[in-house]
């Protein structure tokens, strides 16, 4: 993370800055452990003074019943203060209290199941009548399926800071589900409702594409550095390079969350498609030079980071890449090479699982050739069989093996074969198990090239033995590739990748 005062000194001279204020000011909560006894006193930055009441009382007072079907378009909205109260109250709660709040909201203020059952019966009965009656019965049923809390969420989105609040709220819901803090079907339904609303509010037509430069606001540059999840930004010089000559940085923003980048894409403009990340983020030294268009023949997407956990599953990254391609084509019409240079998270964990002593069948799996196993035995001093497998597992668990040129040379073909299979052959529900691969393949990219020693940083070695992969975007083929992958789960891959997969299959019994 970049020290803010460095950026401000360099960028802003003697300008004075004010830290952005919180959207809603502090709520103080006195929270006994006993259920139903939590009290909240909320104070906003204005004159708002909330009442002291229990969580249950607050929910029953502020979450209004659904209007009847006949009055659904005629009822007046609740006062804005209700939304503000909910936001203040929720932000004041501890993690365990938030779980209780969300559980009550989802279960006690969801769908009226009895009404749904009755209306479903009426839909069945209406099938013998005219189409107008059928459609009206179906519309009544559709309306009854709206959770009672859904209008409350919509009203919150209309107050200042409300959309950001709901994005953070869904992040809490996702955390609850992923951590198994709750497996309630009501919480899962709440997650689905929030995702549906956020998908509408963050549709591509409502997003603004913004290019980030060294002249962008200091706070925005700071957030770009903080949110960088793939290749951490080290200092202010680093971020200056990443938004300078031969580099582009783009972000999607939304009017309801000003100054907050939603998803960020970093691009390197190069002579050819890069095969290692060091040349992009560490060895680039021409930050003050003018761009020579004759040296720009390829655009390499080397980092894409989603900044909002609550927008998980809301498609933003794929649209960002497509928009950026159009921007770059407008700026550099001659560019025809578009590719990612992507990390391979999960590869080493998968490989460690194959080599695990708990995996009984590992001794019969030809992960390495006989010659490769002999080198492992010589270098580690291990015996053959299970002892060599365990020695290799421990070796790959550190970066020590990278210090032996002989071992690096011997392990390269084996690890490249294994990595190709991990990306191409390991599936979940028929799709690539690696999330980065799945993302680019859904976008219509081709699994084009695996690159040895492409990321020799500690993170790169730990995650993928230093291997990276290019997903190539052949613009005339992306639509067809995307449709094929989504419909038939077939992966578009280059001859290099398919050759490595074939070598793996010959050696392995997986």
UniProtKB/TrEMBL annotation:
UniProt KW keywords: Cytoplasm, Decarboxylase, Fatty acid biosynthesis, Fatty acid metabolism, Lipid biosynthesis, Lipid metabolism, Lyase, Mitochondrion, Peroxisome, Transit peptide
Domain Malonyl-CoA decarboxylase C-terminal stretches:
205-473
Origin organism is Megalops atlanticus (Tarpon)
Q: Which Pfam families match?
A: MCD, MCD_N
What's its EC? Answer: 4.1.1.9
What InterPro entries does this protein's entry cite?
A: Malonyl_CoA_deC, Malonyl_CoA_deC_C, Malonyl_CoA_deC_C_sf, MCD_N, MCD_N_sf
- What are its GO cellular component terms? mitochondrial matrix; peroxisomal matrix
Localization = Cytoplasm; Mitochondrion; Peroxisome
The processes (GO biological process) annotated in the record are:
acetyl-CoA biosynthetic process; fatty acid biosynthetic process; malonyl-CoA catabolic process; regulation of fatty acid oxidation
- Reaction(s) this enzyme catalyzes, per UniProt: malonyl-CoA + H(+) = acetyl-CoA + CO2
Q: Name one GO molecular function term.
A: malonyl-CoA decarboxylase activity
Quick one: signal sequence residues? none
Tell me the pathway: Metabolic intermediate biosynthesis; acetyl-CoA biosynthesis; acetyl-CoA from malonyl-CoA: step 1/1
Name residues in a coiled coil.
none
Annotated Malonyl-CoA decarboxylase N-terminal domain residues: 109-202
Q: What is this protein called?
A: Malonyl-CoA decarboxylase, mitochondrial
């Amino acid at each position: 993370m970049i020290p803010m005062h460095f950026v401000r000194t360099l960028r802003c001279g003697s300008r004075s800055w004010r830290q952005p204020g919180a959207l809603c000011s502090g709520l103080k909560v006195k929270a006994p452990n006993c259920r139903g006894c939590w009290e909240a006193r909320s104070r906003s930055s204005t004159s708002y003074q909330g009442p002291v009441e229990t969580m249950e009382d607050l929910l029953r007072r502020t979450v209004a019943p659904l209007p009847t079907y006949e009055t659904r378009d005629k009822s007046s909205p609740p006062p804005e203060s209700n939304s503000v109260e909910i936001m203040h109250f929720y932000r004041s709660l501890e993690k365990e209290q938030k779980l209780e709040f969300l559980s009550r909201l989802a279960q006690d203020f969801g769908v009226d199941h009895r009404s749904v059952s009755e209306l479903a019966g009426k839909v069945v009965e209406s099938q013998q009548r005219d189409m107008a009656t059928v459609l009206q019965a179906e519309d009544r049923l559709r309306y009854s399926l709206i959770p009672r809390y859904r209008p409350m969420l919509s009203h919150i989105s209309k107050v200042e800071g409300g959309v950001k609040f709901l994005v953070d709220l869904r992040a809490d819901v996702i955390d609850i589900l992923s951590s198994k803090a709750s497996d309630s079907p009501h919480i899962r339904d709440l997650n689905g409702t929030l995702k549906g609303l956020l998908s509408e509010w963050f549709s591509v037509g409502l997003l603004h594409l913004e290019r980030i430069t060294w002249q962008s606001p200091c706070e925005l540059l700071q957030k770009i550095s903080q949110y960088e999840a793939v290749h951490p930004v080290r200092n202010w010089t680093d971020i200056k390079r990443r938004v300078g000559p031969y580099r582009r940085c783009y972000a999607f923003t939304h009017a309801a969350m000003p100054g907050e980048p939603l998803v960020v894409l970093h691009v390197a403009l190069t002579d050819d498609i890069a095969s290692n990340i060091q040349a992009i983020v560490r060895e680039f030294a021409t930050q003050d030079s003018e761009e020579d268009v004759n040296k720009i023949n390829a655009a390499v997407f080397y980092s894409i980071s989603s900044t909002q956990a609550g927008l998980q599953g809301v498609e933003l990254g794929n649209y960002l890449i497509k928009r950026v391609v159009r921007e770059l084509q407008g700026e550099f019409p001659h560019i025809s090479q578009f590719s990612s240079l992507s990390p391979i998270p999960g590869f080493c964990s998968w490989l460690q699982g194959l080599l695990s002593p708990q995996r009984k069948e590992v001794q019969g799996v030809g992960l390495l050739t006989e010659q490769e196993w002999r080198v492992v035995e010589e270098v580690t001093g291990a015996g053959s069989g299970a002892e060599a497998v365990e020695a290799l597992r421990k070796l790959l668990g550190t970066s020590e093996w990278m210090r032996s040129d002989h071992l690096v040379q011997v392990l390269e073909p084996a690890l490249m074969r294994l990595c190709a299979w991990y990306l191409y052959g390991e599936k979940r529900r028929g799709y690539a198990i690696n999330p980065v691969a799945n993302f680019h393949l859904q976008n219509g990219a081709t699994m084009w090239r695996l690159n040895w020693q492409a990321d020799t940083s500690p993170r790169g070695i730990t995650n993928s033995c230093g291997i990276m992969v290019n997903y190539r975007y052949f613009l005339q083929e992306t639509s067809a590739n995307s449709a094929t992958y989504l419909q038939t789960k077939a992966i578009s891959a280059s001859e290099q990748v398919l050759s490595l997969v074939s070598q793996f299959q010959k050696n392995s019994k997986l």
